[in-house]
Amino acid sequence: MLSAYSDPHGRRIRAFRDGPPGALFEAFTQTLFEAHYPTITARLHLRAAEHFIHWTHRNGVSVPELNEQALVRFGGHLQ
Questions:
Q1: 25 CB neighbour count, 10 Å cutoff
Q2: Assuming Cys at both sites, which of 10, 25, 36, 45 could form a disulfide with 6, CB separation 3.0 to 4.6 Å?
Q3: Which domain holds residue 31?
Q4: End-to-end alpha-carbon separation of the chain, Å?
């Protein structure tokens, strides 16, 4: 399903599909598809999710640590 929204070369999508968050990313993609999101909108949502995943890795935030405080930190990063 990720390939339906991939960039022209598919590199970034492959990296996520084959990496640790792949199953969650695939499920999110399936949800967007089933909700009939337009391709451009789905790509924007997937890019935002990709950015969040990169941020968690760079900042050493694990899944159990994902709480409101972590989201506030991410929000500060965006500004």
A1: 20
A2: 10
A3: 2-78
A4: 32
pTM, rounded to two decimals:
0.73
Using the structure block, give the residue that is written with the tokens 């598919």. Answer: 10
5-23 in b/e burial notation, b at 16+ Cβ within 10 A? bbeeeeeebeebbeeebee
pLDDT in tens, 16-44: 667 777 788 888 889 999 999 998 898 88
Angle of the 11-18 helix axis to the 39-58 helix axis, nearest 10 = 60
What percent of the chain lies above the pLDDT cut of 90? Answer: 32
How many domains, in total, are found in the chain?
A: 1
What is the token pair recorded at 59? 């900042």
Beta-carbon neighbour count of residue 30 at 10 Å? 13
